[in-house]
Target: nicotinate-nucleotide diphosphorylase (carboxylating)
Amino acid sequence: MLKEEFVKAVVAEDVGRGDLFTRISKSREVRAYVVAKSDGVFAGREYVDVLAKMYDLSLIWEVKDGESFKSGKKLLFITGDSKILLSLERSILDIILHASSIATLTFRYVEAIEGTGVKLLDTRKTRPLLRAFEKYAVRCGGGINHRMGLDDCLMLKDTHLKTIDDLDTFMSEVRQKIPFTSKVEIECETLEMVKRAMKAGADIVMCDNMSIEEIAEVVEFRNTNYPHILLEASGNVTLDTIKVIAQTGVDAISSGSIIHQANWLDLSMKIE
Model:
């Protein structure tokens, strides 16, 4: 969904047939600010900029996407018509809250594996119709997007593999039918499956829910036999376990938690 379409939908959901306050209030120019009431990493600026342009609001930013902030920090000053600004208050805050909360948790995961050279990836475990927005927030937190959808990388999960009789034959046909630039990733739960996937020509192999010892075995096998193949670890990834996983030598670690386990920060808007 394009940013403009997303912002329109966000506002329409809240305003509905019209803000009742605007029926009885008089327009005046006001200035408001958004203040942080907890620490975090900021995200949402790209979307609020679009909203401001659509509704003729003037913004003065005190923070950039991806920048850390402390409780008490005034993040943004907004000037505009009082009726418009008050109607958009919750939409503005929700955009910033949602995005910044994901960016904040993502940053904590990235920080935990700093220095290992391993990339933190998100997943497709996003809220319906919010994928582009939530993955944007991950980037603001220092994470890297995994595939956006089914059309930019072919991943063969255990459910797919159950429908494939001969993996080698399937992979040879795949290369003739998917775009030249598209990668093929195969999900594996055992070293034996890893060997099959690498022999069949996978570009990326996912170590799914493997133990640290099993992942280390896979890394050693890859390094010796197929050094060009990328390794991704996934499953049971937490802030307590991610560094140990990274130290096995995989190239990337994916986690849906950075999106669906993000707790909302505390922000508010005040009129000067």
Observations:
- The mean pLDDT is 97.
- The domain at 115-261 is CATH 3.20.20.70 (TIM Barrel).
- The longest helix spans residues 82-112.
